[in-house]
Amino acid sequence: MINATYAVCEQLTSELLSDDEKIEILRQLSQNIETAEDLIGMAQYLRERSVKIPTCEPNLLDVCGTGGSGLPRMNTSTTVAFLLASMGVKVAKHGNRAMSGKCGSFDVLESLGIPVIQSPATISTTISNIGLGFIYAPSYHPALKNISIARKKYGKRTIFNLLGPLLNPTNPEYQLIGTTKPYYAEIITHACIKLGSKKVTVVCGEDGLDEITLAGKTTIFSGDKNGIVKTIFDPRDIGIARTRSSRYIDCGYTTANAQLMLQLLSGKGPQLLHELTCINAAFALVTCEKFDDLIMAYKSADSTLKSGQALNLFNEYKKLAKQLTK
Length: 326
What we know:
Layout: H1 4-12, H2 19-30, H3 36-48, E1 61-65, H4 76-86, E2 91-95, H5 105-111, H6 120-130, E3 132-136, H7 137-140, H8 145-154, H9 160-163, E4 174-178, H10 182-194, E5 199-205, E6 218-224, E7 227-233, H11 254-265, H12 271-287, H13 294-307, H14 309-324
Parallel strand pairs: 1-4, 2-3, 4-5
Antiparallel strand pairs: 5-6, 6-7
């Protein structure tokens, strides 16, 4: 039986409807509260039409967020991806350019000389050889091109803003996902498990940050075959002091953000952002079952980041990605 939003997504991505007709459908959708079943239907439709990335690597992990915080923030998930890969985790990071923030993952990568558009074979090779692949979402979801103009004209948040983390073409077994509201975190967790994720952790900082925050508590939904559990994480639980506000993540535009990421990967970044990177990496390490204990995971991420090992992996990845895309 076809899910109702599966059929709606088919309409919205069709070339038969005008942009005005698509805007009206988006308006109608926005009058309802999204559910996990809504996400599942749309994700199934778009997954079936995505460009596939052949990879034989088991235990892949994705670390990404839905965005939408509106905060002028650093690219935590991108930094975390390099750190995790340097620790032996196989990472397939799915992402995009900035939507509501100052710069997105692929804005930063491009500014550092890493090719944005990569073929499935290139991504598969970098994952196999380096342990890391970056997947530029617009290149792998051609069906979404048919709704891009209508979404821009409509100009408001829609269910499509929540779909990105559900559309990774490598179908990773593990995911650490950030979003901006606890309700979104809950329905995304349910959707991921129904769509086949082995284990997923979806987080939402109380300051609206779509990742683990240091400026307060974080709502966490953890899901696997045994069910879904909701917990609240406070950085003080593992000995990290809280900050008074989220301004510590204000890292400027693309060039400044890129240089900051290199600083962090070298082990010489600002202490607060070092801690932010490590705590998000720690949750990813527990999610992909590299560690059972969060404190041990944090300590391992901390020592690895301080060693500069992640910067070495960044340089290896950049070299190989450029070679393969000549």
